[in-house]
Structures are given as C-alpha cells and as structure tokens.
Design a protein that fits this description.
Shape: globular
Strand order of the largest sheet: 8-5-12-15-13-14
Radius of gyration: 20 Å
Helix content: 25-40%
Bound molecules: zinc ion
Distance between the termini: 38 Å
Number of helices: 10
Length: about 350
Amino acid sequence: MIVSYKCWGVLFFSWITLVATSDLAAQDSIISVTAEKGDGIYSLLRKQGVNPYKYFDDFIALNLNNLRDSTHLYEGRTYKLPPILKLDSLETSPDEITSVHKILYPIFGKKHAETEIKSKRLSGTIYYLVSGHGGPDPGSVTSYANTSISEDEYAYDVTLRLAKELISHGAIVYVIIRDANDGIRDKRILEMDTDEVVYPKEQIPLNHIKRLKQRTEVINKLYLQHSGKYRRLIVTHVDSRSSGQNIDVFFYHHKKSKAGKKLAESIHKTFKEKYKKYQPNREYSGTFSDRNLYLVKNTSPPMAYIEIGNIRNKKDLRRIVYPVNRQALAEWIAEGALLDFEN
Ligand SMILES: [Zn+2]
C-alpha cells in the first residue's frame, strides 16, 4: 500500500524533474543558498528575490534529493536556486513583462494570470471545462492536516491549470465553473468556499438535478454559438467510485459519440504512456469506457469525463494535495487533448 503512494510521488516528481532539468541544462551559473532555521521553500526563494510561486516546481526539481517528503528543507543544508530571468524578479510589475506572447487572465489568480502563448497547435479549437460540483455543493469532503477539504476545490485547481495549458497552445477556453477570487493555488490545503458560479456568473442552485441542468444548458448554448468549430468538453471529478482500491485515473465518454470516445481514448492513452515511461514497474489500471451520467448524457459537445482519483482515498489524497502533481495531471490531460486534435 505504501509502495503505491510512493510510486505516485516518484512518478510525478521524476517527470517534473526530467522536464525541468532539460530546460535548465542549457543555462549556466546555478547559485546556491543555505537554508536557515525556520526556512521553507517559499521564504527561502522570497529572501533571494525570486518569485516563489513561479519557481517552486523548478526549485523542487533541482533539489529533489535534498528535501524531506519532497517539499521540506533541512536547516543548514545548501540548495540550488533555479536560474532566474531578470523579468521574474518580484519587483517587476505584471504590466511590464506582458508582451505579445503573454496574456493576462485574472481567473488564474495574481501569480498565475500571465499566460505565455507557446504555440498555435490548438488554434481554432474551443474547450468547455467543467470542474465537478461547486457553489453550495462541495462534492466529496475529507480532512487533511486537521482541516476539512473538498473535492470541488481540487477539481477546480486542476481545471484551471488545464485551461492555462490549452490556452498556451492557442485554444479558446471556457471555464464553466468559476471562482473570481481563487485562481491557481500552489498550496496543499485549498480552502473550501461556496462562491463559485456558472459561466458567465450564474449562482449555482443546491438541488442536484437543477445544478446539473444549469451547467448543461450553459454548455449547450455556447456549443450552438460556436457551430462549425472543433469543440470539446472536459469534465473533472475527484470522487471516483472505486475508493479503497488501487486507484488510477478513469475516463468516460458518451456511448454514441465517436469524437467523444476518441478524446477520452487519447487522454487515456497519454496517461498509459506516461506510466510506462516514468513508472515501468507499476501497472496502470485506469480504464476508459462509456457511462450513463447526467452530464455525459445531456451535453452536446464531444466530451471526456475524467475522475482523477478519489479525494477520500488516502493515497489519492496525498497525491492530489501536492500542487506539482495537480500540474502534472493537467499537463497530461492537455497532452491527450493535443493528441486527439492533431490526429
Ligand atoms: Zn464529483
């Protein structure tokens, strides 16, 4: 059981490491700094004038073998600092660094609003992204570090990260469930709140069927407005049915939608390949299949319904609370979406 949890940690972190170091290798002069008493990664970076939110993952990738539980510093040890571009120092205001290739999206929060357009691979595509639950409905609730945490907040964080990825490749993205003041959060505990709305700003009703009907209607209306375009819907939940077992990521699609099936299949395939590459000893048991769920049944766009584990499963929870892991999940889903569009 413990092995399984560790696998996840290693799986995601090793992947991040590979990506980050290949970038960093091209640059020179890595600076080191010693951790003082009480230092965390954030305070250490901040003291060096480095934006901790932006370079948190890079820092972990560089110092992976020198951290306790992958995220804590040892007092008195020396740590490498990621090479920093002058533009990323804390003193620089967002306006100065925004160029043609960088757009500000306030929905991603102050620290993540700036979105770099890396490619035009998804140019002309439209995505509707739905994170499960929201508003008065928190979804599954559990506790972590003596704090109540809920499914909707974690699904939302992954969804925002996914939105940012898709936008960075030129897609137009509608974040259907939205929270004006949350943004992408680089924290383990994502505070519960109830102020999410449905695009553009409709209050979410408590009644289960009314709630699902509301988001379905909004999606279907948008779908009609964009007729003729490549349109896809991605729904994300963190309450997969098979809690208690060895959990993987599950994908669902509409029985009769070939395009939806292909999207779900492409994302599933991407996950399988990532496992094979970064976790060859661990069998991936996630599945993809059709399933008779309200949103699957009643929404118009071809869609993939994704369960990224179950927040009430201890192993899944320990995976999902780490922001680097939520980022990796989002990037894998985006990669699957790219695979679908380009084939
Ligand atoms: Zn759910």
